[in-house]
């Protein structure tokens, strides 16, 4: 997968999670750029059919309320650069560390952790379990309140 495609998939994922239309994202980006992106420009970006400037990546991240590094995250097996393809490990190392020996700073660590948590929580089964847990907690609170007041609880 080309790096532009990886970024495009992340843009689409974040846009859909925030329930923005292509047009709405383009207009939101216009707050940070000279002018808004058209619906077609956002669509091309999501399809990986355009290169990005640093300013555009920054505007996308701001409009989607995320970080620039989060736009680069991918599950692809390899990333194709113009010169050669690199492994997922090499790609993550470049994205997160800058070099093999440099540790993540606190902000980068938090961004990666939040991305991972968001991925897990977005899974349908876990979302349902969270809802069941919340309902169970409400029922337990209602039962405890009924016991204290001496009322019958089903």
UniProtKB/TrEMBL annotation:
<dbReference type="InterPro" id="IPR001387">
    <property type="entry name" value="Cro/C1-type_HTH"/>
</dbReference>
<dbReference type="Pfam" id="PF13560">
    <property type="entry name" value="HTH_31"/>
</dbReference>
<dbReference type="InterPro" id="IPR010982">
    <property type="entry name" value="Lambda_DNA-bd_dom_sf"/>
</dbReference>
<protein>
    <submittedName>
        <fullName>Helix-turn-helix transcriptional regulator</fullName>
    </submittedName>
</protein>
<feature type="domain" description="HTH cro/C1-type">
    <location>
        <begin position="11"/>
        <end position="71"/>
    </location>
</feature>
């Amino acid at each position: 997968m080309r790096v532009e495609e990886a970024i495009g998939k992340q843009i689409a994922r974040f846009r859909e999670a925030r329930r923005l239309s292509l047009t709405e994202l383009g207009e939101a980006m216009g707050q940070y750029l000279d002018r808004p992106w058209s619906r077609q420009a956002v669509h091309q970006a999501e399809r990986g059919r355009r290169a990005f400037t640093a300013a555009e990546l920054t505007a996308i991240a701001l409009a989607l309320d995320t970080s620039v590094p989060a736009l680069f995250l991918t599950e692809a097996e390899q990333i194709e650069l113009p010169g050669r393809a690199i492994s997922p490990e090499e790609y993550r190392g470049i994205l997160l560390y800058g070099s093999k020996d440099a540790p993540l700073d606190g902000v980068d660590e938090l961004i990666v952790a939040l991305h991972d948590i968001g991925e897990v929580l977005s899974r349908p089964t876990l979302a349902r379990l969270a809802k069941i847990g919340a309902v169970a907690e409400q029922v337990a609170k209602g039962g405890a309140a009924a016991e204290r007041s001496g009322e019958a609880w089903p």
